[in-house]
Protein backbone atom coordinates (compact mmCIF):
# COMPACT_ATOMS: atom_id res chain seq x y z
CA UNK A 1 0.00 0.00 0.00
CA UNK A 2 1.42 3.44 -0.86
CA UNK A 3 2.47 5.72 1.99
CA UNK A 4 2.08 9.44 2.58
CA UNK A 5 5.83 9.63 3.25
CA UNK A 6 6.70 8.10 -0.10
CA UNK A 7 4.22 10.27 -1.99
CA UNK A 8 5.76 13.49 -0.69
CA UNK A 9 9.42 12.44 -0.53
CA UNK A 10 10.14 10.27 -3.59
CA UNK A 11 10.55 13.17 -6.05
CA UNK A 12 12.12 15.81 -3.79
CA UNK A 13 15.10 17.65 -5.27
CA UNK A 14 16.43 19.36 -2.14
CA UNK A 15 19.96 20.11 -3.35
CA UNK A 16 18.77 21.47 -6.69
CA UNK A 17 16.11 23.62 -4.99
CA UNK A 18 18.64 25.20 -2.64
CA UNK A 19 21.19 25.66 -5.43
CA UNK A 20 18.72 27.48 -7.67
CA UNK A 21 17.38 29.67 -4.88
CA UNK A 22 20.86 30.67 -3.72
CA UNK A 23 21.94 31.53 -7.25
CA UNK A 24 18.79 33.45 -8.16
CA UNK A 25 18.26 35.23 -4.82
CA UNK A 26 21.62 35.80 -3.08
CA UNK A 27 19.92 38.05 -0.50
CA UNK A 28 17.25 35.43 0.16
CA UNK A 29 13.94 34.72 -1.61
CA UNK A 30 10.70 36.33 -0.45
CA UNK A 31 7.41 34.50 0.05
CA UNK A 32 6.27 35.10 -3.54
CA UNK A 33 9.51 33.72 -4.98
CA UNK A 34 9.13 30.60 -2.82
CA UNK A 35 5.43 30.17 -3.62
CA UNK A 36 5.89 27.73 -6.57
CA UNK A 37 7.21 25.12 -4.13
CA UNK A 38 5.82 25.99 -0.69
CA UNK A 39 2.24 27.03 -1.62
CA UNK A 40 1.13 23.82 -3.32
CA UNK A 41 -2.37 23.80 -1.81
CA UNK A 42 -5.36 24.78 -3.95
CA UNK A 43 -5.59 28.57 -3.93
CA UNK A 44 -1.87 29.24 -3.61
CA UNK A 45 -0.38 32.11 -1.66
CA UNK A 46 -3.56 34.21 -1.86
CA UNK A 47 -5.38 31.53 0.15
CA UNK A 48 -2.58 31.60 2.73
CA UNK A 49 -2.78 35.38 3.00
CA UNK A 50 -6.53 35.09 3.53
CA UNK A 51 -6.01 32.56 6.33
CA UNK A 52 -3.28 34.71 7.90
CA UNK A 53 -5.82 37.45 8.58
CA UNK A 54 -7.55 35.10 11.00
CA UNK A 55 -4.55 35.17 13.34
CA UNK A 56 -4.98 38.85 14.08
CA UNK A 57 -8.74 38.42 14.31
CA UNK A 58 -8.30 35.80 17.05
CA UNK A 59 -5.25 37.52 18.60
CA UNK A 60 -3.35 34.24 18.39
CA UNK A 61 -0.10 34.03 20.35
CA UNK A 62 0.84 30.34 19.89
CA UNK A 63 0.09 28.87 16.46
CA UNK A 64 0.50 25.30 15.19
CA UNK A 65 0.37 24.33 11.51
CA UNK A 66 -0.42 20.59 11.17
CA UNK A 67 0.65 19.09 7.86
CA UNK A 68 2.89 22.07 7.20
CA UNK A 69 4.79 20.65 4.23
CA UNK A 70 7.52 23.12 3.29
CA UNK A 71 6.21 25.74 5.72
CA UNK A 72 4.94 28.34 3.29
CA UNK A 73 1.76 29.10 5.23
CA UNK A 74 3.59 30.12 8.40
CA UNK A 75 6.14 32.19 6.48
CA UNK A 76 3.19 34.18 5.12
CA UNK A 77 1.51 34.37 8.54
CA UNK A 78 4.68 35.58 10.25
CA UNK A 79 4.80 38.60 7.94
CA UNK A 80 1.33 39.68 9.02
CA UNK A 81 1.16 38.66 12.67
CA UNK A 82 3.65 38.23 15.51
CA UNK A 83 3.29 34.93 17.37
CA UNK A 84 5.11 31.76 18.41
CA UNK A 85 4.87 29.45 15.39
CA UNK A 86 5.32 25.68 15.19
CA UNK A 87 5.25 23.61 11.98
CA UNK A 88 4.49 19.89 12.11
CA UNK A 89 4.61 17.38 9.26
CA UNK A 90 4.79 13.60 9.14
CA UNK A 91 7.31 13.60 6.26
CA UNK A 92 10.75 14.32 7.71
CA UNK A 93 12.22 15.33 4.36
CA UNK A 94 9.65 18.12 4.07
CA UNK A 95 10.47 19.29 7.59
CA UNK A 96 14.16 19.43 6.66
CA UNK A 97 13.44 21.60 3.60
CA UNK A 98 11.15 23.78 5.72
CA UNK A 99 14.05 24.48 8.10
CA UNK A 100 16.39 25.25 5.21
CA UNK A 101 13.91 27.65 3.61
CA UNK A 102 13.36 29.42 6.94
CA UNK A 103 17.11 30.05 7.14
CA UNK A 104 17.38 31.04 3.50
CA UNK A 105 14.37 33.31 3.08
CA UNK A 106 13.95 37.01 3.80
CA UNK A 107 11.01 36.34 6.08
CA UNK A 108 13.07 35.23 9.09
CA UNK A 109 10.09 33.11 10.12
CA UNK A 110 10.52 32.14 13.80
CA UNK A 111 8.91 28.73 13.23
CA UNK A 112 9.94 25.68 15.23
CA UNK A 113 9.82 22.68 12.89
CA UNK A 114 8.76 19.26 14.18
CA UNK A 115 8.35 15.91 12.43
CA UNK A 116 5.28 14.20 13.84
CA UNK A 117 1.87 12.62 13.27
CA UNK A 118 -1.25 14.78 13.43
CA UNK A 119 -3.17 11.79 14.79
CA UNK A 120 -0.80 11.63 17.81
CA UNK A 121 0.42 15.15 18.49
CA UNK A 122 3.67 15.43 20.52
CA UNK A 123 2.55 18.45 22.56
CA UNK A 124 1.14 18.87 26.09
CA UNK A 125 -2.44 19.86 26.82
CA UNK A 126 -3.51 23.44 26.05
CA UNK A 127 -0.25 24.28 24.24
CA UNK A 128 -1.73 26.47 21.49
CA UNK A 129 -4.48 29.01 21.04
CA UNK A 130 -4.76 28.49 17.28
CA UNK A 131 -4.24 25.48 15.00
CA UNK A 132 -4.32 25.66 11.21
CA UNK A 133 -4.65 22.67 8.90
CA UNK A 134 -4.27 23.51 5.23
CA UNK A 135 -5.08 20.51 3.01
CA UNK A 136 -3.94 18.13 5.76
CA UNK A 137 -6.96 16.07 6.82
CA UNK A 138 -7.12 14.68 3.28
CA UNK A 139 -4.08 12.49 4.04
CA UNK A 140 -5.24 11.41 7.52
CA UNK A 141 -7.48 8.34 7.78
CA UNK A 142 -8.35 8.72 11.49
CA UNK A 143 -9.90 12.17 11.46
CA UNK A 144 -11.64 11.75 14.80
CA UNK A 145 -8.25 11.14 16.42
CA UNK A 146 -6.90 14.30 14.77
CA UNK A 147 -9.79 16.42 16.02
CA UNK A 148 -9.56 14.95 19.52
CA UNK A 149 -5.85 15.75 19.59
CA UNK A 150 -6.50 19.29 18.40
CA UNK A 151 -9.11 19.75 21.12
CA UNK A 152 -6.64 18.44 23.73
CA UNK A 153 -3.81 20.82 22.86
CA UNK A 154 -5.98 23.91 22.28
CA UNK A 155 -6.54 26.43 25.05
CA UNK A 156 -10.16 26.66 26.28
CA UNK A 157 -10.80 29.72 24.11
CA UNK A 158 -8.67 28.49 21.19
CA UNK A 159 -9.64 27.92 17.56
CA UNK A 160 -8.99 25.35 14.83
CA UNK A 161 -9.06 26.53 11.22
CA UNK A 162 -9.40 24.04 8.39
CA UNK A 163 -8.64 24.99 4.78
CA UNK A 164 -9.69 21.66 3.38
CA UNK A 165 -10.59 19.70 0.27
CA UNK A 166 -13.88 17.82 0.63
CA UNK A 167 -15.78 15.51 -1.67
CA UNK A 168 -18.35 17.28 -3.84
CA UNK A 169 -21.72 16.08 -5.07
CA UNK A 170 -20.09 14.27 -8.03
CA UNK A 171 -17.29 12.56 -6.10
CA UNK A 172 -17.55 9.49 -8.34
CA UNK A 173 -15.98 11.61 -11.13
CA UNK A 174 -12.78 12.15 -9.11
CA UNK A 175 -9.63 11.98 -11.25
CA UNK A 176 -6.15 10.92 -10.06
CA UNK A 177 -3.32 11.74 -9.65
CA UNK A 178 -3.78 14.92 -7.61
CA UNK A 179 -1.15 16.78 -5.54
CA UNK A 180 -2.08 14.99 -2.29
CA UNK A 181 -2.48 11.50 -3.74
CA UNK A 182 -1.22 9.62 -6.77
CA UNK A 183 -4.01 7.05 -6.30
CA UNK A 184 -7.25 6.83 -4.33
CA UNK A 185 -5.49 4.77 -1.61
CA UNK A 186 -3.80 7.91 -0.25
CA UNK A 187 -6.80 10.21 -0.56
CA UNK A 188 -9.02 10.36 2.52
CA UNK A 189 -11.54 12.99 1.48
CA UNK A 190 -14.88 13.25 3.26
CA UNK A 191 -18.01 15.28 2.59
CA UNK A 192 -19.18 18.49 4.26
CA UNK A 193 -21.88 16.49 6.08
CA UNK A 194 -19.25 14.06 7.39
CA UNK A 195 -16.93 16.81 8.61
CA UNK A 196 -19.82 18.50 10.40
CA UNK A 197 -20.75 15.23 12.10
CA UNK A 198 -17.15 14.55 13.12
CA UNK A 199 -16.70 17.99 14.65
CA UNK A 200 -19.90 17.55 16.63
CA UNK A 201 -18.85 14.06 17.75
CA UNK A 202 -15.77 15.43 19.54
CA UNK A 203 -17.81 18.18 21.22
CA UNK A 204 -16.37 21.00 19.15
CA UNK A 205 -18.45 23.68 17.42
CA UNK A 206 -18.36 25.17 13.93
CA UNK A 207 -18.24 28.96 14.09
CA UNK A 208 -18.28 29.40 10.32
CA UNK A 209 -18.00 27.31 7.16
CA UNK A 210 -17.30 29.05 3.87
CA UNK A 211 -17.15 27.56 0.39
CA UNK A 212 -13.99 28.73 -1.42
CA UNK A 213 -14.52 26.50 -4.48
CA UNK A 214 -15.29 29.25 -7.01
CA UNK A 215 -12.17 31.26 -6.25
CA UNK A 216 -10.14 28.03 -6.09
CA UNK A 217 -11.26 27.15 -9.62
CA UNK A 218 -10.39 30.63 -10.89
CA UNK A 219 -6.95 30.31 -9.30
CA UNK A 220 -6.37 26.85 -10.81
CA UNK A 221 -7.35 28.09 -14.28
CA UNK A 222 -4.82 30.94 -13.96
CA UNK A 223 -2.12 28.46 -12.90
CA UNK A 224 -2.85 26.27 -15.93
CA UNK A 225 -2.47 29.31 -18.17
CA UNK A 226 0.85 30.23 -16.53
CA UNK A 227 2.21 26.71 -17.01
CA UNK A 228 1.69 27.08 -20.75
CA UNK A 229 4.03 30.08 -20.98
CA UNK A 230 7.68 29.74 -21.94
CA UNK A 231 9.08 31.31 -18.77
CA UNK A 232 9.37 28.77 -15.96
CA UNK A 233 9.96 30.00 -12.40
CA UNK A 234 13.31 29.47 -10.68
CA UNK A 235 11.87 26.56 -8.72
CA UNK A 236 8.85 24.50 -9.78
CA UNK A 237 6.23 22.26 -8.15
CA UNK A 238 7.66 19.34 -10.09
CA UNK A 239 10.78 19.55 -7.90
CA UNK A 240 8.55 18.52 -5.02
CA UNK A 241 5.85 16.34 -6.56
CA UNK A 242 7.62 15.02 -9.64
CA UNK A 243 6.93 14.85 -13.35
CA UNK A 244 3.21 14.14 -12.87
CA UNK A 245 2.56 17.60 -11.41
CA UNK A 246 1.19 19.07 -14.65
CA UNK A 247 -1.34 16.22 -14.83
CA UNK A 248 -2.14 16.69 -11.12
CA UNK A 249 -2.95 20.35 -11.73
CA UNK A 250 -5.11 19.50 -14.73
CA UNK A 251 -6.99 16.93 -12.67
CA UNK A 252 -7.56 19.38 -9.82
CA UNK A 253 -9.12 21.80 -12.31
CA UNK A 254 -11.33 19.05 -13.77
CA UNK A 255 -12.33 17.87 -10.29
CA UNK A 256 -13.37 21.40 -9.33
CA UNK A 257 -15.23 21.96 -12.60
CA UNK A 258 -17.05 18.63 -12.28
CA UNK A 259 -17.80 19.26 -8.58
CA UNK A 260 -16.01 16.08 -7.61
CA UNK A 261 -14.34 18.19 -4.90
CA UNK A 262 -15.03 21.41 -3.07
CA UNK A 263 -12.77 23.72 -1.06
CA UNK A 264 -13.88 25.06 2.30
CA UNK A 265 -12.65 27.14 5.21
CA UNK A 266 -14.02 25.93 8.54
CA UNK A 267 -13.48 27.81 11.80
CA UNK A 268 -13.97 25.60 14.86
CA UNK A 269 -13.92 26.26 18.59
TrEMBL record:
Which Gene Ontology MF annotations are present? sterol 24-C-methyltransferase activity
User: Which Pfam families does the UniProt record give?
Assistant: Methyltransf_11
Key word Methyltransferase present in the record? yes
- Name used for this protein in its record: Methyltransferase domain-containing protein
Protein's UniProt keywords contain Transferase: yes
Q: CDD domains recorded for this chain?
A: AdoMet_MTases (cd02440)
Q: Which UniProt keywords apply?
A: Methyltransferase, Transferase
Residue stretches making up the Methyltransferase type domain: 64-162
Any one Gene Ontology biological process term?
sterol biosynthetic process
The protein's organism comes out as Neptunomonas qingdaonensis
Xref: InterPro entries:
Erg6_SMT_methyltransf, Methyltransf_11, SAM-dependent_MTases_sf
Looking at the record's lineage, which domain of life comes first? Answer: Bacteria
